[in-house]
Amino acid sequence: MNAAITAVGGYVPDFVLTNKILEGMVDTNDEWIVSRTGIKERRILRGEGLGTSFMAIHAAKDLIQKSNLDPASIDLVIVATATPDMQAASTAAYTASQIGAVNAFAFDLDAACSSFLFGMSVASSYIETGRYKKVLLIGADKNSSMINYEDRATCIIFGDGAGAVLFEPNEEGYGVQDEYLRSDGSGRDYLLVKYGGSSFPLEHTHIDNKEQFVFQDGKNVFKHAVFNMADVSERILDRNNLSKDDIAWLAAHQANKRIIDATANRIGLEDEKVMMNIQKYGNTTSGTLPLLLFDYESQLKKGDKIIFAAFGGGFNWGALYLTWAYDPR
Ligand code: UT7
Fold first, then answer.
1. Which residue among 28, 66, 115, 157 has the highest number of C-beta atoms inside a 10 angstrom radius?
2. Residue 252 Cα, ligand 1 centroid: separation in angstroms?
3. Burial letters for 207-218: b for 16+ Cβ neighbours within 10 Å, e otherwise?
4. 105 and 299 in contact (C-beta within 8 Å)?
5. Pairing mode, strands 175-183 and 191-192
6. Which of 33, 35, 151, 219 has most ligand 1 atoms within 8 Å of CB, for mutation?
7. How far apart are CA 214 and CA 193, in angstroms?
8. What is the pLDDT of residue 329?
9. Is 167 found in the same domain as 253?
């Protein structure tokens, strides 16, 4: 039994934070941002009390509406996110209730920028074992909630957004074929929100020093991302005896266009086969992979071999090989 993606949904907030606007906020410029990252604009969720669940719910409802899915038939809702609504209450439980998944259980899954990729592994395993028939995996992050908009090293990169996919059993062999997932905790000091968790609960001094926000040693993360994302992508091709000509698409975490290009180059893939939307959304953390599927769904054909790859905080990274299960609807 394979676990196939059978439906896709997505949502990005309306407000567009352009490079031009950022030029008025920090010492940066459009030319630098585009040449170093490939990002032209990103979306920001505004509105009091609106958190990650707001986008997760919209993405899930988009999927439900497009695929005529009865939400009561969903067995499990996983919200992959690094920015849950609240410290203790599950974002997934709230999301499931709001979309009418009344018979589902739900949980959050956090592996930083690899949350959705690792979520694909978890969701597909539940299907492959035969335990559940419909698993809704949502990748959603409100990164703007943890960004210091006075820090040009991070505020130009991140955006908000969400995407959702449904995993169902497939007896024709389509769906997840293989995965290669890794973690290395020695990298955690390079990309983190240090304060506000259980090690260092938030205190006034942290807020005074703006320490409740993301810190990233970009150069170091970049180096590890380039090496590792390319490495796992190459390994997954090798061990499945795939050549570059067999691959229809690379769906890589949208953190930096140069990292994506390096991964594509390592496996020799032409630009036309590389899904790219970083220019529109920036890095939406758990949202990047499902938002790629959301934007490219109309171009995907039954049988297309897709390599997913991600790298992010932790460090966590990996690659997953999936065959697409349906033609454009
Ligand atoms: O999704 C999770 C994983 N995250 C990633 O994969 C992100 C990985 N890292 C990166 O994408 C890149 O390292 C960045 C985009 C964050 C930075 O790009 P970079 O090419 O590594 O720049 P840099 O940090 O080496 O900085 C180069 C120069 C520096 O100036 P000097 O020292 O050469 O004079 C920086 O001060 O660019 C300067 N700089 C900027 N200039 C204009 C840094 N940020 C900016 C900025 N605008 N926003």
1. 115
2. 20
3. eeeebbbbbbeb
4. no
5. unpaired
6. 219
7. 5
8. 86
9. no
328, part of any domain: no
Token code pair at residue 145: 């909630």
| Beta carbons of 272 and 284 less than 8 angstroms apart | no
pLDDT digits 0-9 by tens, 40-97: 999 999 999 999 999 999 999 999 999 999 999 999 999 999 999 999 999 999 999 9
Between the alpha carbon of residue 91 and those of residues 48, 53, 81, 141, 226, the distances in Å are 17, 6, 9, 11, 31
Pocket of ligand 1 (CB under 6 A): 28, 32, 36-37, 113, 152-153, 156-157, 218-219, 221-222, 225, 255-256, 259, 283, 311-312
32 falls within a domain: yes
CA distance 169 to 127: 6
Mean pLDDT for the stretch of residues 114-137: 98
Distance 269 CA to ligand 1 centre (A): 26
| d(C-alpha 288, C-alpha 63), whole Å | 16
Query: Does 249 lie in the same domain as 166?
Result: no
**What burial letters (b/e) apply to 230-262, b meaning 16+ CB within 10 Å?**
bbbbbebbeeeebeeeebbbbbbbbbbbebbbb
What is the tens place of the pLDDT at every residue in 202-220?
999 999 999 999 999 999 9
